[in-house]
Amino acid sequence: RTFNIQSVNRLVFQKETLPNVPGMYTLEASGQGCVYVQTVLRYNILPPKNMTTFSLSVEIGKDRCEQPTSPRSLTLTIHTSYVGSRSSSNMAIVEVKMLSGFSPVEGTNQLLLQQPLVKKVEFGTDTLNIYLDELIKNTQTYTFTISQSVLVTNLKPATIKVYDYYLPDEQATIQYSDPCE
After folding, report:
1. What is the pTM of this model?
2. Which of 14, 132, 139, 166 supports an S-S bond with 81, CB 3.0-4.6 Å?
3. Domain named Alpha-macroglobulin receptor-binding: which ranges (predicted)?
């Protein structure tokens, strides 16, 4: 593919998608002036399978898979417990990454704050953090609903991670996906 940069199109963004990644590509330039070339590579990394300190699982309720109406909602039920060598963990955080286009429904923070051991709930751009006083050997269950506000096709899985705030290497990570996809 050839790009001709001239004074009339010097500020026009031009791009080309590389058909084979990985692959060998060459860029040649000639002429006078200044040009900016950028490459972007995006990929997903599977989470590690280390679950020796915490037990973590998720159930996903498919509220309306057969109905293509928007917004769709999914109920997440997270089960977690401490399975390490001590009687309990330090303060723990359950970090729930949202599926693309989804966010917690209104009132989720207040709902979760009423659950055992929950001290604080924060929602950022695409992550819901549930701060727990500690996790004990008994399984704790946290249920909330996420709603699709933006339709995204070909959804990739998202992660749920639980970790010890003071010992972040003590963690467990799992993936979840939209059961309707």
Report:
1. 0.71
2. 139
3. 89-176
The HSE-up count of residue 11 (CA atoms within 13 Å, CB side) is 1
Per-residue pLDDT tens over the stretch 136-159: 999 999 999 999 888 888 889 999
State the amino acid at position 17 in one-letter form. Answer: T
Query: Residue 166: is it exposed, middle or buried by C-beta count within 10 angstroms (0-12/13-18/19+)?
Result: exposed
Name the percent of the chain in helix, strand, coil, to the closest 5.
Answer: 5, 35, 60
Helix (H) or strand (E) holding 113: helix 108-113
Superfamily of the domain at 54-176: Alpha-macroglobulin, receptor-binding domain (2.60.40.690)
DSSP H or E stretch at residue 108: helix 108-113
Contact between 163 and 92 under an 8 Å Cβ cutoff? The reply is yes
Q: Which two tokens stand for residue 101?
A: 């286009």
